Amino acid sequence: GPAHLFRLAGKCFSFVESTYKYEFCPFHNVTQHEQTFRWNAYSGILGIWHEWEIDNNTFVGMWMREGDSCETKSRQTKVHLVCGKSNKLAYVSEPSTCVYSLTFETPLVCHPHSLLVYPTLTEALQRKWDEAEQLLYDELITDQGYKKILKEIFEEAGLLKATEENEVEKPSKKITLEFETVEKCSKEYKQLSEEIKKLGVLLSQHGIAYKGNSAGNLSVEYVSHQPAAA
């Protein structure tokens, strides 16, 4: 992420609300401690430093994931970085069960360019992003294809982590009707057309009547019951 934020590493900031004390340690974890005299007072981890949330070339939040178990999932926390006069944990909420939201104020993000993603990338990844922008401008890739390239760039830069679900899906990739580029669409169409022509010839050889539409698709009308030649 932004190099100037690394000076927060190794430090921790606390916030007390009601009987709970929250502690945020940038690039490390978020913890919660129940400050009561109950024998089973909760004290645990709400998330471990995982990845950035990126939107519109901007680091919009830090995700702390894989915290203590909570029913069927793990606790996780999103930390919002906002401009402030000093470094402090300013607000904590739980918008949904076991998902927490922290607001951290710091003067390190007050400059309008302080949370831009592009300047933090290597020259090679910046060139890759520039090329993707040009392809999108020339309409050679779709918006979906552009976003996919950006995700790959952010993962390669270590800003995002590839999810296990995506890694599992790779071997058994499902067929989709969407194409990232016009060239891929045209190539697939040409290959399918050639295959359909070959199928048409085979059907004729084996006495199976068919008709094709303008796209080259086949529709079988009847099947001959005569044995086909080997």
Automatic annotation (TrEMBL):
Q: State one molecular function term (GO).
A: transferase activity
- Give the keywords, sorted: Disulfide bond, Glycoprotein, Golgi apparatus, Secreted, Signal, Transferase
Q: Which InterPro entries match?
A: DMAP1-bd, Gtb1-like, Man6P_isomerase_rcpt-bd_dom_sf, MRH_dom, OS9-like_dom
One Gene Ontology CC term in the entry = extracellular region
Q: Which superkingdom?
A: Eukaryota
Task: Please state where this protein is localized.
Answer: Golgi apparatus; Secreted
Describe the location of the DMAP1-binding domain by residue ranges. 117-220
Would the keyword Disulfide bond turn up in this protein's UniProt record? yes
Domain MRH intervals: 10-112
Query: Briefly, what is this protein's role?
Result: Non-catalytic subunit of the N-acetylglucosamine-1-phosphotransferase complex, an enzyme that catalyzes the formation of mannose 6-phosphate (M6P) markers on high mannose type oligosaccharides in the Golgi apparatus. Binds and presents the high mannose glycans of the acceptor to the catalytic alpha and beta subunits (GNPTAB). Enhances the rate of N-acetylglucosamine-1-phosphate transfer to the oligosaccharides of acid hydrolase acceptors.
Quaternary state and partners of this protein? Homodimer; disulfide-linked. Hexamer of two alpha (GNPTAB), two beta (GNPTAB) and two gamma (GNPTG) subunits; disulfide-linked. The alpha and/or the beta subunits of the enzyme constitute the catalytic subunits.
* Full protein name: N-acetylglucosamine-1-phosphotransferase subunit gamma
* Organism (species): Hippolais icterina (icterine warbler)
Coding gene? Gnptg
